[in-house]
Fold this protein.
Amino acid sequence: MPNRFYGAFDTERMSGKSDVGDFRTAFQIDRDRVLHTPAFRRLQNKTQVFWSGEYDFYRTRLTHSLEVAQIGRSICHWLKAPGGLLEDDFFIDPDLVEAACLSHDLGHPPFGHAGERTLNHLMAPYGGFEGNAQTLRLLTERIFSAKRTGMDPSRAFLDAVLKYKTLWSELKAGGELPEHHFIYDFQHEWLDWAMAGHDFPAELPPGDSRDSFKSIECQVMDWADDTAYSLNDLADSVRAGFLRIERIEAWAEKRGEPLGEGTPLGELIAAIRKRRVDPFVGSRIGKYVRATRLVHDVNHLSGATNRYRFRLEIDPAFKADSKVFKKLAFEVVFLSPQLKQLEHKGNHLLHRLWEVLAKRYVIGERIDGQDFQLLPEDAASEIGQAEGEQAKARLVCDFLAGMTDGYAARMYKRLFTPDFGSIGDLIG
């Protein structure tokens, strides 16, 4: 039975090519193209909270993305429950939401958000770096490495990963270098295509107001990501020994957060005492899913597609619940000296790698009078053919952002540690 929620406007691809003849839907094709790319597989060795590879049970960007995808599909099924605004032949496609959820962290570099901040600092003279903007770059230009043509996403899929719709230069016009929540200036053509040329109205100026304007699939993905971030990362933090009862109690007292029975922190502490944190998280995820509902919306795109005719409304109690858990994790775990030391190490590795690669490939200086070939042949060749420092810097940044934690550490050691590396290590 065809799904009336979507039309030709939503399934159109940037190339104009048709999916006729394929047994899959347009959105199943989008999902499958993401799943079978090296960029997706590399997420298994990229940091979520704790450095990947340190312990087997910690989440990586890959397992996080899989969990977000499962939550996103669950939200789609919940919203389709009887009595709502959707019907059996008029519903939010779970394959489309899954594709967006699997893709949402593709562009994140090694070493988590610390790596993202480092690359943004290094790329400040060349248009900045942002994980979501890099995801857009992969999907539209880089993801199939042999041709560097992108994966030719459908309009609905591309729009579903567009969390931010403000250009880097638009934020920079405010007087400070943008720290996050932007797309690259040269990506305006993809934004225009996703929006089908519709200009943003005056009530949606650059910044947070415009970024809050999301398709319904993007809203579902965003809440699924928030759910996984605020709950699943808690379990890792408890297992790692960062979130102990005494730390939670001390933090709650300092912040004035309640700890009584029935409060978010009170229930978390009870779960830790009973050694039932994973069941606690699983039950809470179900509550976050059921905390969603659809409401009608009217805006400048609601006449063009059903994807903008609806808004995801979340029970305020569970939004507050999520906010408490995210704040707890950030202040007790992410700001802890142990994690900050690892972030400092990741920052140092990326800085040193950038310094030598930028000197060799962006500025074009010889190193001690020699032209050392430091990058793989295909990457070096592409950078060599690029025109101008900005284009070359972007390609060097692509290389660094595509690294896994382990690859970045190994390359650093090969370049700077005298007794590390062999011919065998360099193969592949």
Summary: The two ends are 47 Å apart (CA to CA). The chain has a mean pLDDT of 91. Residues 361 and 380 are 8 Å apart (CA to CA). The chain has 21 helices and two strands.
